[in-house]
Design goal:
This protein is of the alpha/beta class and about 280 residues long. It folds into two domains: about 130 residues, D-Maltodextrin-Binding Protein, domain 2 (3-Layer(aba) Sandwich), CATH 3.40.190; about 90 residues, 3-Layer(aba) Sandwich (D-Maltodextrin-Binding Protein, domain 2), CATH 3.40.190. About 40% of the residues lie in helices and about 15% in strands. Strands 8-7-9-6-10 form a five-stranded mixed β-sheet. Strand 7, helix 5 and strand 8 form a beta-alpha-beta unit. Helix 2 crosses helix 8. The N and C termini lie far apart (about 70 Å).
Length: about 280
């Protein structure tokens, strides 16, 4: 085929490709615009119109909340909640806090909140009953013991196999204890985190397993003469997410808000401010 005819044949094809390529970007742009419009404050489907209802447990402990007052904006999870609210278009006065016990937050059924923020780990079992946002924090587990205990200088998780361990029901700390530490004695399971703490105080258990951030707080403020013997990874990781009712149309909007907070550095700054520690804790395996 003469060169000029080859060019003539190719030109329409290039034009067609260019047009097709141009058109392919239009639906993507329209989808992005539609997503943004659906997340406009006026379009959100809320528990109470005009108000963002946020739940957490009571008491609410540091470093997640300060002074047991979620509404004061102090503490990691309080600050994250208000940062998400801001991205959704809500001022601090338009956020209402309600109490939701930890183990009932992921139970099936209707919810009295738009989202719950309470160190709730994303697990497949819970995700069958509720919806989760993308993770806003990844947390390891930790083991607290008395400073005078021989376990305070443990070199591996095997040292805890014969220990009496206390842990809260329905938590990833419980599954991590059973699947990773694998104690020979059945862990003593308690209904609330406060019950776990009290059991340790009266020497009912040798050690307690909680998430790492909580362990930092407990050993510095609640449990005197104690130490974190070590930290370890939970099975599959321990990612915390905002919890919403199953199928909530608010979930993609919350994810957009978290994505923005991650990209602009806000989430990293909040994590550094409230969750960082200079304490050196060994990783046990």
């Amino acid at each position: 085929m003469p060169k000029k005819f080859m060019l003539a044949a190719v030109a329409p094809a290039l034009i067609a490709i260019a047009v097709a390529g141009g058109n392919s970007s239009i639906p993507a742009a329209q989808a992005a615009q539609a997503a943004a419009a659906s997340c406009a404050k006026s379009k959100l489907s809320l528990h109470t119109p005009g108000v963002l209802t946020v739940a957490t447990d009571s008491p609410a402990y540091p470093p997640y909340f300060e002074d047991n007052k979620p509404a004061n904006g102090k503490g990691f999870e309080s600050a994250v909640a208000y940062a998400v609210a801001k991205q959704l278009g809500f001022g601090t006065g338009q956020v209402k806090w309600v109490v939701e016990p930890f183990d009932s937050s992921y139970a099936p059924g209707p919810k009295s909140f738009d989202f719950d923020i309470n160190e709730i780990s994303i697990t497949p079992a819970r995700a069958k009953e509720v919806s989760f946002s993308t993770p806003y924090y990844t947390n390891p587990q930790a083991i607290i013991v008395s400073k005078s205990s021989s376990l305070a200088h443990a070199k591996s998780l095997a040292a805890f196999r014969n220990a009496s361990i206390g842990v809260q029901i329905g938590t990833t700390s419980l599954s991590a204890t059973e699947q990773v530490i694998k104690p020979s004695k059945t862990p003593q399971i308690f209904d609330t985190s406060n019950d776990v703490i009290q059991a340790f105080k009266i020497h009912r258990v040798d050690a307690i397993v909680v998430d790492y951030a909580t362990a930092l707080y407990l050993t510095s403020a609640e449990l005197s003469k104690t130490t974190i013997a070590g930290q370890f990874k939970a099975p599959g990781g321990d990612n915390w997410g905002l919890l919403l009712k199953k199928g909530s149309t608010l979930t993609p909007c919350v994810n957009r808000a978290l994505a923005k907070l991650k990209s602009n550095g806000t989430l990293a700054n909040l994590t550094k401010r409230w969750m960082s520690s200079k304490v050196s804790v060994p990783v046990l395996r």
